[in-house]
Amino acid sequence: MFKRCLKSLILGIVISAVCSFAALAASPDGRDFPYRVELDVDECSRLCYAGHPGSTVVYKDGYAVMPDTTFRLVKNEESRAAVDPSDLSITISLLYENENRSGSHREVIKQYNNGDLSLDNSFSVLSDNIAASLDDRGRLFSDSLNGLEMVLKTSGGDKEKMYLYVCDYDDYSDYLYGSSY
Question: What separation in angstroms does the CA of 155 have from each of 22, 23, 79, 121, 158?
Fold first, then answer.
């Protein structure tokens, strides 16, 4: 009986150690990503399409935005990383289901390269030209098989993903003042 309890205790410690190591490995030095994105609209949670990489469609928590939404970078005060915003790039991609619904397409629609970003300015999620082009193709507004992915990446390789659900003003108001999903 004592051996069984001792084995269980040791197994529990090993599992805890492995989980702790995995958490630290996912975030170098145990720190959070050095920046966060602050949208110019009221925060409105929305379940977003995140692609179809395997046998099932993937959804992730994200935020409802409108085509004219802007964002700004804010230093994450909890982060111990000392990264200059000029060492940060952002890629905004359109994710949508392919025609036979067996996978997804990823189109890079906007790119902010290293040196393009600062903490002092606001930046558009979609430019007027991109919004018009997506609207012409019937891909401007999100649905259960269409959405945006924003990837923030430091020159050191750390990255964070954010998902966006693009909607018109009326739908945004409904989501904001109605249910969150």
Answer: 22, 21, 16, 20, 8
CA distance from start to end of the chain: 50
pTM recorded for the entire structure: 0.78
Sign of CA dihedral 3, 4, 7, 9: negative
Diameter over CA atoms, the chain: 72
Half-sphere exposure of 61 (CA within 13 A, CB side): 4
CA 35 – CA 160 distance, rounded (Å): 9
95 burial level (CB within 10 Å; 0-12, 13-18, 19+):
buried
Average pLDDT over residues 106-119: 94
pLDDT per position as a tens digit, 120-175: 899 999 999 999 999 999 999 999 999 999 999 988 888 999 999 999 999 999 99
